[in-house]
Amino acid sequence: MEALIDTVLLKVASRCNIDCTYCYVYHMGDDNWSRMGKFMSPETIEATAQELKKVADLQGKPFSVVLHGGEPFLLGAQRLNYLLATLRNSLTQDFTISIQTNGVLISNEILDICSFHRASVAVSIDGPKEVHDQWRVDHAGGGTFEAVIKGYEILKSHPDHLFLNAGLLAVIDPFSDPGEVYRFFKSLDAPSVDFLYRDGNHDRLPFGKKALYSTEYGSWMSELLKIYLADHNPLPIRVLDDMLKVLLGGMVSKEGLGVTDFGILIIDTDGSLTKNDTLKSAFNGADQFERRVNITDRNLFDFVSSPAFTAYREMQRPSNEKCLRCPYLDLCGGGMILHRWKKETEFNNISVYCADQMLLVDEMKSALEKIYGNVA
Ligand code: SF4
Fold first, then answer.
1. Which of 63, 238, 313, 326 is the most buried (most CB within 10 A)?
2. What is the pTM of this model?
3. Which residue has the higher pLDDT, 277 or 224?
């Protein structure tokens, strides 16, 4: 059987201890979080673990589980231990469990629990202090850089850091200096870093983009690519590695690139099953299925086999004529769904990052051609 689920995002805490200005959860028009309890209840956690096990047994393939929020470490040691123990009771170590955190609440006690249950930790940092502190601020508007670095240092010095440290995640500031950002991440001695484009769509252009066909992000990434390829001991960058892999005939590992569909299931803090939560940035409730289903209804397998889930999965495939005829489609895949949104034509559009992607792919191809000759 084809895998129904590749990734499960568990929104284990609905609130956050910091207040990033660009956050799609709290600052992009959706307010569902405010009607939820702060944490997943024990009943929801039990149902999640048992229902995931049933799907895993039936699909016969493991999937990744990512604890997300809000901020997952707001759970505190006791709730986190209960949650991870319950998940691990159902899901063997063939299933990766990772935690995406803003890093501020990392402590040795928390890391010992993660280590015990084999859950790795990825930290969000946007770059050096002057870049990071512009966006990743606390509820009083102050920068969080020092607190995050302190948390990351605790992670790096944990006895099990080789397993625990799952790398860094950065949202691109197109006005920052890619060389400076790259050197900063290298100085942190991280195992890898991933870069994300800002949320945005045709009605609300991403921060720093002057027009649909301007290439601020493509230029930034192309500069990063040059620095990366010139480094004899490079810091692995997931998005660049994935794109290079596809150009050389391989497969991507994550949604938003290439033409592979990924089954991404979101279980919200109250147990409701939703579409990819990044869709919240399009309009209020864009991540909701028409028929509300909760994990405690105990019919997850039926749900992920249903036409509604299949249709959601197929939303990842671009439908716009321009994308379907595009020579860059195999690599770009039409971008992330949220980046295609426009009120009149809904998701039937090119990505708002189309020109950026074309520029980056061209740069990548010419760099590879210098090494390998003609790249298709
Ligand atoms: S978004 Fe642009 S580059 Fe990507 S597939 Fe569509 S037309 Fe091609």
1. 63
2. 0.93
3. 224
